[in-house]
Specification:
The protein has about 270 residues and is of the alpha/beta class. The chain is about 45% helix and about 15% strand.
Length: about 270
């Protein structure tokens, strides 16, 4: 019988209560990992922990943490090490579609419809703070623990095809995700000497709460399908499978890469 690809590993996943983050948590647990999910909203976290426990046999804990605050992410990794003994892989999946997006909810106003020249500066700052600075904080605090433990590790960041395909009306989102892609490439070079691999995935339009408002709008759904050569939205498990490849030893010679599971939206 084949050994599970993450057997005995500990995976920490931000944004793990819904969408791509939750799909990664379930998929990683299926492959033998013990899971720590973090998000905002205690009830949402507990519900996600229950779902993961019901579908897998691994150990799962939930920690409420906001990626905007370094002390909360530091406490997340401290608790992960204290309770599970190690951190082997991290998925930085916490993010927002727009400044008004509420994690894990559908909002018809979360599509690309906020022109930059009209956007309040505080909205721009919020998107960059969560989507880019939050990923940076997650990366560096994860790496500090991995270095201290001396076991190396793998970090997977969730960027977006919007890092390479411009979406008018979503300049803040595009810039934040392009930043995640470059953060991944540059930080990977710093971490090579510590045997820590840093990679990213850049999803296209995926069936998650973040796109639910657009899915419910016929014009929004047609727009997403029309931009996708495969003619459909991706499924969260398809993103989780890509993240799993980057997290496990099958990608042991890969670092600084961004893969784009996007139905052909961007190739290159």
């Amino acid at each position: 019988m084949a050994v599970a690809r993450l057997e005995g590993k500990v995976a920490v996943i931000t944004g793990g209560a819904s969408g791509i983050g939750k799909a990664c948590a379930i998929r990683f647990a299926e492959e033998g990992a013990n899971i720590v999910i973090s998000d905002i909203g205690g009830e949402r976290i507990e519900s996600a922990v229950g779902d993961i426990r019901n579908s897998t046999n691994g150990q799962v804990i939930g920690v409420e943490a906001n990626v905007c605050f370094e002390e909360e992410i530091s406490a997340l990794f401290d608790q992960s090490v204290n309770e599970l003994g190690r951190v082997d892989c991290v998925v930085a999946a916490a993010g927002v579609a727009s400044a008004n997006y509420v994690s894990g909810t559908a909002n018809a106003n979360d599509g690309p419809d906020h022109p930059l020249i009209e956007q309040p500066l505080e909205d721009w700052n919020r998107v960059l703070q969560i989507n880019l600075t939050g990923v940076m904080l997650t990366n560096r605090l994860a790496a500090r623990h991995m270095i201290a433990l001396g076991n190396g590790g793998s970090i997977v960041n969730i960027a977006s095809t919007a890092a390479r395909v411009a979406l008018p009306g979503a300049v803040d989102y595009c810039v934040s995700k392009a930043g995640v892609a470059m953060l991944t490439h540059a930080f990977a070079m710093e971490m090579i000497e510590h045997n820590i691999r840093v990679n990213a995935i850049g999803p296209g339009f995926i069936e998650t709460p973040m796109t639910q408002g657009m899915q419910d709008d016929p014009e929004g759904l047609d727009m997403m399908k029309g931009m996708t050569p495969m003619g459909r939205l991706g499924r969260p498990v398809e993103m989780a499978n890509t993240a799993l490849y980057l997290a496990c030893d099958e990608s042991s010679y890969t670092t600084g890469a961004t893969l784009y599971p996007n139905g052909g939206m961007f190739v290159g």
